[in-house]
């Protein structure tokens, strides 16, 4: 009878649809995440099949009973990937609206509305400035929040992408009856299923019986070739075990009968999907910088608020009036234009990067890429082409490289190469369709593609039609077929497989265009060739043939592959073909440039250690033969501290035979060391690491839909060198963002100090709320954003990644608040006092006049010349003064825009080559004129048409 575990500690129980312990949703999700991070620990692939049937309560002939299957389905749930939680878009939207710098803006908006409410309770005709400002701040926050929401909405689609990989139905037996259309969702542990070529594996299954069964597992493990799966003895690591086929991988050849071991969330794919969906991406460096700056501004604003509150109390202002003052000074400290400026600058940079084949899905990833210190790169499809090719050929005592210029000549003259062409065409199981396209697994396709360049395999196959074939299996390690030689009216046996296996079945070899007996010397030579090719990361296949005697094997001879009745020994050894997934041509130079920029590159792959080391040396990740290689088994025995020390000790590291959870473990270890980590990948197995990294980078052409959905950046040309462009753009945009932030903050000073003058010295308000809004969200915006178009002042790729260089530094704050901002404030106050003086109010008479000035009941305020001013006349003069102050700020901001163009070099060296900034500075002045002189606008923004005079 089937068995169920009742222990909640069992991972199977943990992922049941119902919550056994009724844990809080957050606790259950965290517990599941921690469970998924652990390596798969099971012995279901190691124990004898008879014991496995007993454990699962199944029968290999009849399968499960329908009653048992229904009970198991109800208890454990369907064979699907369940979402982490029901998607609640309002919750995500609120998170986007109330995070980072937006919290400060919301706080400012609430204070503005509160100030308007207080003023409304005190005055019959309150000023609407604070109401308008509050509404504008809310609008800014909502727009930026919605933008962030749509950017982050992609994370909710990750599990949907995984679910697209799952087949709809499969062939399953229950109660002794086969059902060819069994819904995959209804499969349970213990079900017996049948899969054939073209089918997608419906669950994690252990092979019971198979024939020529090959599975493409590249999306799950990163291996670029189909692998054989059969009923053999398993290995400790289930992911490397040859008797297990995994959920969502595809059968490309043969057939198999298997028993279901795991379903849904507990399959290898389910674990990867669960990790990718549940992991939270690391906060970007820019996000951390903005949060830190928000706290600085909050402390500074609150400090000023406390100062104003104390000063108001000392000066004898009423409590309500003091509250309005405190609100005003806090709001004045908020740089409303900062968040839109950063968003717009990053968006424009993203658009430029698209033209360079770099699609940015997450805007913050642009700057993060510039700050990256470690790149953890996948091998297959990222550093290599993910396309097996014939690289080298060995025949007796001679090695040929297909890249050599004289290879084609050698091909014509060498008898062994001629024989190899024929044998390869007949042995390859790949096919050529009517359009000339080649189909088959990676290795077979590579052999046939190579032969098509120098031969016509189709003609060879017509002249040598196949009679019978024994497919490759992991026990024999060879594939053999018998063909009829039409021209000579005889049969030929051709064989390919593991070189050591083929060699033992041969007694002759092609030597110098003749056949010679195999000696110990020849065996040593062959073994050395195998070793040499293997050390370069090549997959080696040996080829042999045998001409059958027509007297023993006459025409129409009945060949039997079950009870083999033709020779499998005494063959002629022809040669060896070395297959390799070649590195991309541009990768080596790209890695060299990245290293010059101080970025460490590590390979993290699921492939064999020897192959990984060879590719690492070829592309420049490993510059010495002693490059440190860490395998998945090594990682399994490492503590987090030991992995940390390994990363510290060895600069050049290659991680091989790693599982998805181990890739995640490596990324988190690098982040614990303080690194900003970028992960490149193209397969499903890369999804958790892509999700957890500071920057996830996927391939646009060869990348799976899952990797694209999870990544922050997609390389549209699959070119690793595009990462170099991304790093360069990231570093440049950070430098330019510092310029934009500096420019925005400078105008903050002449906005804060007038409020302080208004409160402390009781003068008429020099700059109104609406004119502050005109500066922050009007005249400053274009120039601030256009600074992102500035060219790099120096070679940003010749310096190490930034460390400790924040978006806002002490040096910048001194420049803003202690120098340029004060000059701008002085220019504004000079303009303000000048207009006041021209109309009769000298500076000495303005101090202490505010209460009478703002009192509607007072109609006889006298100026320095003895003239009396009504309330309406005073307010009209105040508008003119505020407009003058506003224009003075705009003019000085134009000069500050030129100053902010460069951080290090002289403006005379840099020049005014940024046309967007030049237009922005002109626009800034034109907009100021429009706001002052257009009748409807100057009434709304409380500005005034100024008179031009010398």
Automatic annotation (TrEMBL):
Membrane topology: Multi-pass membrane protein
Molecular function GO terms recorded: ATP binding; ATP hydrolysis activity; P-type sodium:potassium-exchanging transporter activity
One GO location term (cellular component): plasma membrane
GO-annotated biological processes: intracellular potassium ion homeostasis; intracellular sodium ion homeostasis; potassium ion import across plasma membrane; proton transmembrane transport; sodium ion export across plasma membrane
PANTHER family named in the record: SODIUM/POTASSIUM-TRANSPORTING ATPASE SUBUNIT ALPHA, SODIUM_POTASSIUM-TRANSPORTING ATPASE SUBUNIT ALPHA
Function per UniProt: This is the catalytic component of the active enzyme, which catalyzes the hydrolysis of ATP coupled with the exchange of sodium and potassium ions across the plasma membrane. This action creates the electrochemical gradient of sodium and potassium ions, providing the energy for active transport of various nutrients.
NCBIfam families: ATPase_P-type
Protein name: Na(+)/K(+)-exchanging ATPase
Species of provenance: Papilio machaon (Old World swallowtail butterfly)
